[in-house]
Amino acid sequence: MTLLILALLVIIVLFGVKNIRMQFITRPIFSFFKKLLPPLSDTEKEAMEAGDVWWEGELFRGKPNWETLHSYGKPKLTNEEQDFIDNQVMTALTMIDDFDIVHNRKDLPPELWEYFKKEGFFSLIIPKQYGGKAFSAYANSTIVAKLASRSVSAAVTVMVPNSLGPGELLTHYGTQEQRENWLPKLASGEAVPCFALTGPEAGSDAGAIPDEGIVCRQEFEGEEVLGLKLNWDKRYITLAPVATVLGLAFQMRDPDGLLGDKEALGITCALIPTDHPGVKVGQRHNPLGMAFMNGTTYGEDVFIPLDWIIGGPQYAGRGWRMLVECLSAGRGISLPALATACGHTATKTTTAYSYVRHQFGLSIGQFEGVQEALARIVANTYQLEAARRLTTTGIDLKVKPSVVTAIAKYHMTEMSRDVLNDAMDIQSGKGIQLGPKNYLGHPYMANPISITVEGANILTRSLMIFGQGATRCHPYVLAEMETAAMEDSSAALERFDSLLLGHIGYGARNAFSSLFCALTGSRFNQSPVSGETQQYYKDMTRLSSGLAFVTDLAMLIMGGDLKRKEMLSARLGDVLSELYLGSATLKLFEDNGRQQDDLPAVRFVMATRLQKAAKALDGALRNFPNRPVAWIMRALIFPLGNHFNGPTDKMTTDLAKGMLQPGPARDRLTFLCPEFEGDKGGIAEVEDAFLAQFECRNTYKKIKKAQRAGTLPKKMANMALFEMALEVSIINKGEFEAIVNADKLRLIAIHVDEFETL
Fold first, then answer.
1. Residue 267 and residue 315 in contact, taking contact as beta carbons nearer than 8 Å
2. Mean pLDDT throughout 715-736?
3. Taking 70 as the threshold, does the pLDDT of residue 177 lie above it?
């Protein structure tokens, strides 16, 4: 006891007396911290500072305020947005024949191009004063998703002008003159934009752009002006083959000092008409057979005045930050919209197909193997819709959540891959035979495109989500890094002392919280709701504490080496991602009014999210290089083991069976794949067959009962069986006519396209 009291007194003196604390704790730790800091390149620093911290900050810090999540509100369409979707979007869907677009035309039909331009599909994000729609991110996402339910090529054509490109960059950073000149042309479709960022030597590492713009003087429109001589070679540029105006990212250099002392000014963005002398549009790419325009552009000694820099000369060298901040549109709106459309389409068609396709005398949806894959499709679709809504909510709140949009891009495009794989497994021959009736083939073929663009998924997971999130979301680390860079060492030490005390308290709280939650099953954690979902909030808080605790120790012990331990940082990023996705799921359940028929999907999704988050955290501990520290962390986070086991078989069958019937729950997960009059594609066929078969379900039961009783033969062609059932009065005339019609629709739905032998 005496030794314990002495130890406590030493701790109290060390931490309680400022002069002693500064001498023996703060100063040595500050010196160690400065050595530990990883060197940051200019592009890394700009990326770190770009964007805003949003809901992910709450999740990263170990004690999420769930009331904050609920306060964000439910995304809603304005009357104008809803009217556009009900009319212009639905009209556009009737004009789409995706098989003809992809396999015959290799392009959208001229009338669809003209309709998109005339009706403002390319002006969704442009302010109204320049002739644009100024629609919300949620509306933009909904429009792209509905188009994608019938044609990926049409959806990509619309989404590109409304994501990273001239329209968005001009809106945020353009000079007044640039806006007045270009935005009305972009809004009307007179100007078709593309943005050239990626080149042969710069893909995911966009900061390594080799293309250059050299400051020089040259004659332009009859007089000598200060400008840039540009040379570039770009590829994978969507809309480049048809673009009339080119957004270009390049490294700007001033070797002759015409603008000042600095030679390397950094990445800069400019806007150039494609008919400008020296600008060349190369040949077209073939992105997995899809028909959207994608190709190359290059230029040799192309001279432009400095005024063509987006934002004017004062924005020279600021292009990288502009791009990072504006990438949220592609990462948070467009690509997640494509992924969610895949989910809605797969859910609508696969639930219907599982009901109407019969094998071994049963609907295939009655087999547990099919139900297992079907439950994953439905659960992933619920998750996709939830993440789409929460992410666009953040963007519509005018924050620039760069970490959140990276999470959305990576996980949602990967989820769409899983959805399409499961849908293909269930629909099998129907899915692999291409033709006008095939609604899975083109999305399945195009899926790797979404996974590749806007930052390859492998690097997005391993470098961006945790690498940026750990520093931006931590309540102390970024401030400590800024303190370490201060020139006034005395002021820096004073500030660091204050931060250090807070940081120690923060770490101790998360360590204690992790242990207490594990030992008590999170029962004493706060939840903003009662009922069945309250435990999910409590478990998420527990895992949030664990993530914060492990992150703190990982950054302390590994320092700059952490960013090179990509597998470890990816696992920690996965924990954050799963918590974000779980948050989105719980918020969607609340936004939908806590519908009871949503609960099977919520149970399955949340069991999956918690299992994956805990598994990622467990994997990080298993692979943590400092084993003694790893043992301590495991003892605090999983003292009784990891018991997050994922969905049960009952959850799986309950979810699948509940979606094998028409109803509000199914409608909420298929509305982005709309029905419309005159739809001659396979989606309408399989849906019509499903509804007709479901209406006849009691008639089928009568026939099955008679077969079991021996009144009707067990094996007989359907038409003959129905006629016999009518003859022996098992069914009446009305039931006979309905079941015959339903069977005709069933045969139409399960048939595939045929072609003449080539």
1. no
2. 93
3. yes
